[in-house]
Amino acid sequence: MKWNTEALDRFLEEKIAERKLPGVAVCIRGPEGVLFSKGYGHRDGAGLLPVDGDTIFGVASMSKSMTALALAILEEEGKLSLEDPVVRYFPTFQVPGNARDEVTLRHLAMHTSGIPPMEPLEWSIAMNTPGRDSKWARTLQASAPNTMSTIQEVIDYIAQGRYPTLGAPGEIMSYSNEGYAILSYVVDQAAGIPLEQFLQERVFRPLGMERSVMDIAGEEAKVLAKGNISALFDLDDEGQLYWDEVWSALPPFRGSACARSTAHDMARYYQCLSNSGVLDGVQCLPAGAVEKLAGPAFPTQEKAFYCLGLNKRLLDGHVYCEHSGGLHGVSSEGGYLQGENYGFAVLCNQGEVDVTDLLWALYNAVTDRPLEADHRWLHPAGGTFSQPELLTGHYVCHEGVPVHWTVSCQDGALSVDQDGTKRRLLWCGGTWFQQLDEEGQVVGRCRFHIRNGQAWGVQVYTRVYQREDYEKETQL
């Protein structure tokens, strides 16, 4: 394949410099091997050590497809079924409002168990990570009921039902780190060895991912890195960039967010998934297990669909399977072109920054689209939503420090105030909307859920925020 690597390099360099990102590593792999690999910026606080394709970063929620893959391999081997009820592995598990035996491993893996957004992951980080002193950490430490350091504490908290269940299993998708925390321990039981060991033996080693590990607090990654590991950058309470080397410790959430890897290794991983488990001519992963992640059992459509640890979408004849990740000092994106033998990775060492357009540029380089072309799958419908009164109200997300969404309507135009930040809502058909900032730039998407003639919740990206009065009515 011939394409302009210099143009791609310039595009990425300009975008990274424009956002003042400390360090970014990218990689594209295809049938010929590494097609493009580049490190930008630095990996240390002094700005002296460069990033390269072998620099170890956190990958955060990109870990989830690895956990899902472990489950798929175990199902191929007859050691579990994705249709198993969760209570088979954790007898006290319960999603209040649903029958105890209804929720399956598949529901957890697809985020359709009915579990609403809740605090345990962020409580776990705040209570188990030393050296964090911020308004965020202090707020969560003050509200945490315990250290959230065991999976049983997570399961017990879910069972308390402090927030209304979102619906019957399989009805509503809402991203749940708690679900993948539980799945990590299901792998332990079914495999007879810890998830971390299973991934080393069955995924990382066969794929030649020699600089990849799943570990709770990054200590194994530091040893593996031999110095080539990134520091962690973030903004403090005053909006100033700072750095440290304190990886988030979140013990029960191993398979949700605890993998560390490199751009080279993650591109190998995604390329192998793209090619039915074959990498460099070798069948490294069972083809049947790879197919279970995002294969024909799931719809192929323009709107992204969450499969098992991966989003799947269709654009211009290409099927993209991908995931992002974010934690302190981590903003990651990666994916593959299904059936086309291409894998892509973008790893950044600053938390809470959007690097999606960098991944899009990698995709575009391979698929012969303009590098700046976006991949948004939600488009304005024209006109306005005809029943705005169904949507207005106050919505809350309890994942960590609560996020408040107040939707209002003036002269037929809907807008949202998110904790003091105001955005316009642009109708995109059905109950879908784009979020626009003051300059008219798209900064998000959302979809309202209607029951009994009123919106009871709004899905903001992948989390469902529930209407406040709906919560009160449900708790009566």
TrEMBL record:
The question of whether Hydrolase is a record keyword is answered with: yes
Keyword annotations for this protein? Hydrolase
GO MF annotations, alphabetized: hydrolase activity
Q: Which Pfam families match?
A: Beta-lactamase (PF00144)
Q: Residue span of the signal peptide, if any? A: none
* Superkingdom of the source species: Bacteria
* Beta-lactamase-related domain mapped to chain residues: 8-353
Q: Mind telling me what this protein is named?
A: Serine hydrolase
Q: What organism does the UniProt record list as the source?
A: Pseudoflavonifractor gallinarum
